[in-house]
Amino acid sequence: MFTIQDDPQFTHTxxxxxxxxxxxxxxxFKATFRVVPPEETDRHDLHTTExxxxxxxxxxxxLDDIGADGQILPYSDELRDRVLALPYARxxxxxxxxKAIAGARAGN
Length: 108
What we know:
Blueprint: E1 9-20, E2 23-34, H1 38-42, H2 49-59, E3 60-64, E4 67-68, E5 71-72, H3 77-84, H4 87-107
């Protein structure tokens, strides 16, 4: 049975290729996303920093398994914005969201 939810959300692992000297280091964290209707997605210019940031702020519900100085950081808007300031992290977040949505569409 297909179930309709008022505020559909999902949690996926976000795989990030973090640049390091001479290559990349694979890291990951978990993100919980809110599904937004296609017409809302269309209102954001995802080709600009401002538009993609506004979109990611809208769809991100929480981020987990992110640390600094050996400590796990609790989710906050400040943490979200720190992550979104990293180009490789924001790319990984957008990719994870859109692959999940595309996979859901393909499966239904």
